[in-house]
Structure formats: structure tokens, C-alpha cells
């Protein structure tokens, strides 16, 4: 890909000095920056707390591209400061912190957006501590990035009570990526003490609140910062990014927009992403993505001359701190080229704008090659799924070693032992035989445990041989584990806990030597190559969790989105958010998705169909009414019902016996309410192809469906072939399955087919027995005939 680009606006050299960081800026901004740096040398600490970043923060921020512009812009104060409150639970503390022992520590990470600086911070701590703690020797430290931000005393008169305390935090301690730790220093006696005595405890509630005052800083208009500021990986909240179109965008423009929204969805990952579509209206504040061609120019945007597929970053005319990402082309074909260049080659872009001179065709994707999914063609190393540093732990109370992975949702594990894992791990050898174990769980479900062996001290040749076998002092172990498929949802997590038994030596002899370590070897592998792909559909659970069957191809090249012939903004928003959800599942932009109107649906017969609209605007819901398990027409509603579904938990993880339920009855009701539904059925246009319909009896109901799909707690209730959404309530009403996709080996297919049809098996066994009897009869008769002929001779 060759680019024509404008001059860079910021110097991105990794070895730049303070003077060099300001030399490439306009004169006025450079003067302000130099004055600010001069003031920092004479301003007392209190003034720094009032809003100016100190030199420590500058040094850390300079290591990132965003840091350059942030430092330059921080010299001039800007309006728009905001205060955010984040509970420890929101930051990742699933349960309250249980701090036990003489020196216990636990914490959570947090981060600050590149276009904001912290001008004030405090922790609203909610905690309880043991009445046995000696106040003069015990306390709780609040630590930020390894430095003590504050110390909380533990007086006797409030021990054992639920307390609250505000702990101010110096803004200078906070950088882009941070860790907030709570540390208990506890003692219950001045004499010999047990470092793990039961009286040494404190509990910090995960409802404690970290409050941050954030002031915006302006980033440069530079493509090299992408995806900043439109997406910032430091921000843990949901990405909400408006997309701006002209009055009636073409299908090609929508395909380009789907490519971009799926890219942002992949970047957002666990945070989730929603994309509100606006027509001829740029948001008054914040950031947005704008799609422009010579025929489609949204109002309110100053568009430069378009000389080909182009990408540019310009200020939001209504917000000095906001940016607009312009995706441009002279026609829709060039617009799609610009979208592909953005999503596949963003790291090669720089300058305020760039024109794409050439973009070679991308190699076609193959099924199940999504970057976020476990590969099906070879074993996958743990080192590909997690950072090596995250596979190592230390201490007597170490955190879990976590390995996250996603599986193709159509793995067929019938009569298989499960997914094989070749596990390799190391640990500090135990001095004597004890109860130390490595506990292994899958998504918080216990799987098995391995004892951690001891290595006793040896003398003479035995100790020399031991040193040769274990030169680094650790014990290497190889084990083979089978993961049952029924324990594995689409997004799974392997959890390894090194539990070390603490040996009691007796009074005044217990000294805690925190020198134990454990590691999961990155060369450990997980292997799904032996499992075929075969699944019964419809199944909204695999759609809600993985976007299947559309995500079978990572680029969605076998997917068509069918919008109403006259779409509204709500239809566009639903489409874009669903594409972002697909990108989150696959980790790849939807460069192959096709968008069509209802009138042209026959041209998309060879694809899986994602149909969006209200019952008033989408004619396909009327044409296919007999195949759909739901019809929402104003106040008139019709449902197909089975005996299932929402009462059954966990069926979508692989308990096939509870999946399929035939329709028992159909019901029609009239009620004045806004209902929305997800329904799935086999495509009326081609056997083996799927349709997932997102429908509502009112335009605003479509958003409730996307909100459910973005909520990790509520999406688990989306099951079967029909899920009804009413506000925050989700009910799965039908679970009939009537077709299969995928392929099984011939002999496995015969076995499976017979297992599903016991009557056919009985008939086949009876037929085989009858055939065997006939063959034996004919054989014996022929033998008797030969005998008779022999006697006559």
C-alpha cells in the first residue's frame, strides 16, 4: 500500500528531548509549552495538584505517541473538566479484597485516556479490620504504582466495624497505565507471632470508589495516533462512537461503514462498542467518523478536495477537544478502498491526511481462521494466548494464572474425551512432602489438581545429580489434560492456582520466606484439530456469544445484511453495532460483508442473512411470517412456544439433550407495548443457510436488542430460536432445531445419525438379523444339496 501524505504535525522520535518535543509545533503553542515547563520548576507541589502534570508524568507519557501532543497541549488550560467515579468492582475486583497475614496485598489496574490528564484523585475506601491488630504496628497502605499514596490507621475503638474513609491521592503518582494496591501490614503481638495467624485480616469492599477529576488536552490532527482519539485502549468504558452519513447512504457506503465499525469493535474488545448513526448532522461534542463521497457529503463538515481514497483527521467544528475521522472517496468504490486501508493498514498512516494510491487485494479468508479464535489447523501454544509475564506468579498467596481463549462454537465433541491440553509447568520444589497443589479450573469450574512434589536435600553424588537435572532450582512437570466441551462456553478461561502449604515450625520458629514461585510454560499447547465442525441450528446462543454462523468467515464474506428498502437512522445504528459485535468476536474487520435492501434479497441467496428492521418497515418479516417463530405487528404479537427454554441453564454450553424442543403451540396477543425480538430460522432461499432477524414493533426497540448483546450478564439468556426482549427482561420462548451445518467423517455421521433415531436403529438391526438369517438359510440349504448329490454318486 503506497500512501501520499501531508507533513507530520508532531515529532515522534523515541529519543527526543524536551526542547525537541516543542520544536515542531506552531510558535504560539511552543512558547506556551516552554513557559509551562519553566513554571513547573518554580511552582510548589500544591499548584501541581491543581492541574499541571509534573515531570514524572511527562517522562512516562513521552514513551507513547499520544504523549507528545498531550504534553504540548497541556501547557494551555482547557475547559471541560469532568469527574468520574469507578468502583473497584468496575475496575475488575469481582469480590472484596481479603487481606490476610503480616504483609498482604491486592489491587486492580486503572488507566487514563491519552487526551486527558488527572488534576485530582481520591479513594473512597470502605473497609473492615480485625480487632486483634495492634494499632502502633499495623496499618493499611493505599499504593499507586508502587508508591504509598496514603496510610489508613487501625485504631482499637473502630475495629470490626464497617468504615469509610477518603484517601487523597497525589495526581503526580498517576500515569497512563496504573495499578492501585491495598496493602495490610498487620501484627497481633510484640512477641513471636504466626505470620498467617487467623487474627491477621482486613477486608476492603469492592464498592470502594476511585474518584478522578480529568481535564481534557487536545491531541494533534495526526493519523499516526490512530486509533486515538476515537478509541483509547486506556479507557475501560464502552466505546460510543457516532457515525455520520449524508441523507441516504448507498449500500456501498454502508459496507464501508460496516468494515470500519467492525474494526473499532475488535479494538474495543471486552468493553463493547455502539455506533449511533446520524444523518447530515455532526455531533455537537466529542469524536465521530464521517463518510464522504462526491455525491454524499454530510452537512456541517468542511470536506477537502477528494483526489482518491483518502483518510483525514480534522477538528470537530463544534468542539475544540473533539475530532472527526473522515473516510473519503470520489465514489463508493474508492470509499470502500479507503475503509479497507484504514482497518488493515492504520499503523502505516501518518500526517493530517493520507491518500491511498494502491491497495492490493487481500488474500481470501478461510473458515474458522478468525484471529481471536483457537486455530483449527494446528496446536496453539499458551504463549500465543497470554503474555509470558502473566504466566508467572510468586508468593504463598499468588494470583491465578489466567489463559483466555475463544473456541469455534460448532465444535462437535460427541463421544470424544474433550480438548487435549499438553500442560507444562514449573514450581519451586517443596522442602518436605506437604499438601501443596496446582489447582486447575475452567471458567471457575474446578477440573483437577496435581500435587507439588518435594525435593529433599541430598549429599554427595546425589545432590550433584539433582543439580544437573534441576539446574534452575525448579521442578518441571508435563501433564496431559482433557477439557470436556460441556464445560467450555464460547469465551473460556483456564485458571491455574499454585497453592503452597505453609509449614508450622513452632513458637518463635515461624519465619515467612516468601521465595516460592510457579510458572505455566508458554510451550504448553491446546489442540482442537481432532474435533469436527458440526452443529444443530437455529441456536441464538451461538449468535449472541460468537456471532455464529456469520463469523464462520472472519471477514463476513458469506454474510449479507438486509435492511428495509427505506431505512431509518435506527436501522443503520443497529447494523453498525452488530458489525462491531462481530468484529469483537473475530478480531478482524468485516471487509466482505454485503448490504442489500429487501427488494434485492434474492441476489443474496447464497449467503447467511442478517435481517434488520421493524415489522412496519421490513417487508421480509411479512413474506417469511410462516417460517419465523415471532411476528410483532404493532399491538398484535404472535409467538411460537416450546416447553423450555429459559428455565434450563447452561444448555448452550453443550448439553445437547436439552437443546431441541418441538413447537408445542402458537399464541397471539394484543398489547400496547414496545417489544423487540431476536429470531433465527433456516433461510427460505437456500437450504443450510441461516437467517437471524432483529425486529421490533417500534424503531426504538431495535436498540434494546443491541444493548442485550453488549451486556455480558444478559446475553447468556439469549437462547433457542426466539428470544423476546422487553426492557431489561429477556425470555427465550422457543428452541426448535431443524437443520445442521458443518460436516462429520462418514463413519462418525452414521453413528451419530443412528443415535438420534433409535427406531431406525432397531429396524436396521432387525433387518440385518433377517438378512443374516436368510444368508445362513441359503448357505445351509446349498450345503445340504451338495451332500445329497454326493450320496447319489
Detailed description of the structure:
With 793 residues, the protein is an alpha+beta fold. The protein folds into six domains: 2-73, no CATH class; 82-216, Galactose-binding domain-like (Jelly Rolls), CATH 2.60.120; 223-358, Chitobiase, domain 2 (2-Layer Sandwich), CATH 3.30.379; 380-526, Galactose-binding domain-like (Jelly Rolls), CATH 2.60.120.260; 539-571 and 585-737, no CATH class; 757-792. It has 14 helices and 41 strands. The longest helix is centred in the last third of the chain and has 35 residues, at 758-792. The model is unreliable at 1-78 and 644-658 (pLDDT under 50).
Concise summary:
By secondary structure, this protein is of the alpha+beta class. The radius of gyration is 32 Å and the shape is flat.
Amino acid at each position: 500500500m503506497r500512501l501520499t501524505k501531508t507533513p507530520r504535525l508532531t515529532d515522534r522520535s523515541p529519543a527526543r528531548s524536551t526542547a525537541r518535543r516543542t520544536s515542531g509545533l506552531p510558535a504560539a503553542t511552543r512558547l506556551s509549552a516552554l513557559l509551562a515547563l519553566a513554571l513547573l520548576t518554580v511552582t510548589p507541589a500544591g499548584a501541581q495538584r491543581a492541574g499541571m502534570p509534573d515531570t514524572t508524568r511527562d517522562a512516562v507519557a513521552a514513551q507513547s505517541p499520544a504523549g507528545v501532543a498531550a504534553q504540548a497541549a497541556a501547557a494551555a488550560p482547557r475547559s471541560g473538566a469532568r469527574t468520574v467515579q469507578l468502583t473497584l468492582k468496575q475496575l475488575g475486583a469481582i469480590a472484596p479484597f481479603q487481606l490476610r497475614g503480616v504483609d498482604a496485598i491486592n489491587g486492580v489496574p486503572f488507566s487514563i485516556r491519552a487526551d486527558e490528564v488527572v488534576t485530582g484523585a481520591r479513594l473512597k475506601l470502605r473497609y473492615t479490620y480485625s480487632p486483634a491488630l495492634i494499632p502502633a504496628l499495623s496499618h493499611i497502605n493505599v499504593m499507586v504504582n508502587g508508591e504509598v499514596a496514603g496510610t489508613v490507621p487501625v485504631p482499637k475503638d473502630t475495629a470490626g466495624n464497617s468504615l469509610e474513609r477518603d484517601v487523597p491521592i497525589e495526581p503526580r503518582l498517576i500515569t497512563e497505565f496504573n495499578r492501585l494496591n491495598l496493602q495490610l501490614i498487620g501484627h497481633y503481638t510484640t512477641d513471636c507471632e504466626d505470620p498467617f495467624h487467623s487474627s491477621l485480616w482486613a477486608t476492603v469492599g469492592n464498592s470502594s470508589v476511585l474518584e478522578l477529576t480529568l481535564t481534557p488536552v487536545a491531541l494533534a490532527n495526526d493519523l499516526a495516533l490512530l486509533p486515538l482519539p476515537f478509541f483509547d485502549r486506556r479507557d475501560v468504558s464502552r466505546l460510543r462512537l457516532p457515525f455520520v452519513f449524508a441523507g441516504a447512504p448507498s449500500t456501498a457506503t454502508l459496507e464501508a461503514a460496516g468494515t470500519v465499525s467492525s474494526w473499532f469493535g475488535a479494538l474495543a474488545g471486552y468493553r463493547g462498542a455502539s455506533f449511533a448513526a446520524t444523518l447530515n448532522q455532526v455531533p455537537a461534542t466529542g469524536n465521530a467518523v464521517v463518510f464522504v463521497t462526491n455525491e454524499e457529503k454530510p452537512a456541517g463538515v468542511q470536506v477537502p478536495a477528494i483526489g482518491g481514497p483518502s483518510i483525514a483527521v480534522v477538528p470537530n467544528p463544534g468542539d475544540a477537544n473533539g475530532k472527526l475521522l473522515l473516510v473519503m472517496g470520489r465514489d463508493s468504490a474508492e470509499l470502500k478502498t479507503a475503509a479497507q486501508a484504514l482497518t488493515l493498514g492504520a499503523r502505516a498512516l501518518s500526517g493530517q491526511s493520507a491518500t491511498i494510491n494502491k491497495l492490493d487485494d487481500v488474500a481470501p479468508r478461510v473458515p474458522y481462521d478468525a484471529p481471536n479464535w483457537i486455530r483449527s489447523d494446528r496446536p496453539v501454544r499458551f504463549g500465543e494466548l497470554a503474555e509470558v509475564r502473566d504466566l508467572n506468579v510468586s508468593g504463598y498467596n499468588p494470583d491465578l494464572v489466567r489463559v483466555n481463549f475463544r473456541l469455534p462454537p460448532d465444535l462437535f465433541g460427541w463421544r470424544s474425551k474433550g480438548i487435549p491440553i499438553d500442560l507444562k509447568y514449573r514450581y519451586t520444589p517443596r522442602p518436605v512432602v506437604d499438601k501443596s497443589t496446582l489447582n486447575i479450573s475452567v471458567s471457575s469450574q474446578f477440573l483437577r489438581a496435581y500435587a507439588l512434589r518435594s525435593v529433599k536435600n541430598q549429599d554427595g553424588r546425589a545432590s550433584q545429580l539433582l543439580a544437573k537435572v534441576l539446574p534452575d532450582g525448579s521442578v518441571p512437570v508435563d501433564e496431559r489434560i482433557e477439557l470436556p466441551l460441556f464445560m467450555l462456553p464460547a469465551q473460556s478461561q483456564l485458571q491455574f492456582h499454585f497453592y503452597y502449604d505453609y509449614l508450622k515450625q513452632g513458637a518463635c520458629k515461624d519465619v515467612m520466606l516468601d521465595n516460592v514461585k510457579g510458572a505455566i510454560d508458554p510451550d504448553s499447547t491446546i489442540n482442537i484439530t481432532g474435533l469436527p465442525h458440526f452443529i444443530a441450528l437455529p441456536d441464538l446462543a451461538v449468535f449472541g456469544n460468537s456471532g455464529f454462523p456469520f463469523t464462520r468467515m472472519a471477514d463476513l464474506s458469506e454474510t449479507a445484511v438486509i435492511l428495509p428498502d427505506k431505512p431509518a437512522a435506527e436501522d443503520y445504528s443497529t447494523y453498525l453495532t452488530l458489525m462491531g459485535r462481530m468484529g469483537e468476536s473475530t478480531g478482524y474487520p468485516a471487509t466482505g460483508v454485503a448490504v442489500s435492501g429487501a427488494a434485492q434479497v434474492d441476489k443474496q441467496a447464497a449467503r447467511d442473512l442478517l435481517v434488520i428492521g421493524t415489522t412496519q418497515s421490513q417487508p421480509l418479516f411479512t413474506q417469511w411470517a410462516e417460517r419465523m417463530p415471532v411476528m410483532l405487528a404493532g399491538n398484535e404479537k404472535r409467538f411460537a412456544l416450546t416447553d423450555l427454554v429459559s428455565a434450563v441453564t447452561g444448555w448452550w454450553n453443550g448439553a445437547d439433550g436439552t437443546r431441541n424442543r418441538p413447537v408445542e403451540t402458537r399464541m397471539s396477543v394484543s398489547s400496547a407495548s414496545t417489544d423487540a425480538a431476536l429470531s433465527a430460522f433456516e433461510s427460505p432461499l437456500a437450504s443450510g443457510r441461516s437467517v437471524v432477524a432483529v425486529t421490533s414493533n417500534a424503531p426504538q426497540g431495535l436498540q434494546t436488542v443491541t444493548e442485550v448483546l453488549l451486556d455480558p450478564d444478559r446475553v447468556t439468556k439469549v437462547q433457542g430460536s426466539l428470544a423476546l426482549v422487553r426492557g431489561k427482561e429477556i425470555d427465550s420462548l422457543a428452541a426448535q432445531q431443524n437443520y445442521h451445518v458443518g460436516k462429520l467423517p462418514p463413519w462418525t455421521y452414521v453413528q451419530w445419525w443412528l443415535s438420534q433415531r433409535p427406531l431406525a436403529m432397531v429396524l436396521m438391526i432387525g433387518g440385518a438379523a433377517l438378512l443374516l438369517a436368510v444368508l445362513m438359510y441359503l448357505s445351509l440349504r446349498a450345503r445340504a444339496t451338495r451332500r445329497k448329490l454326493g450320496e447319489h454318486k
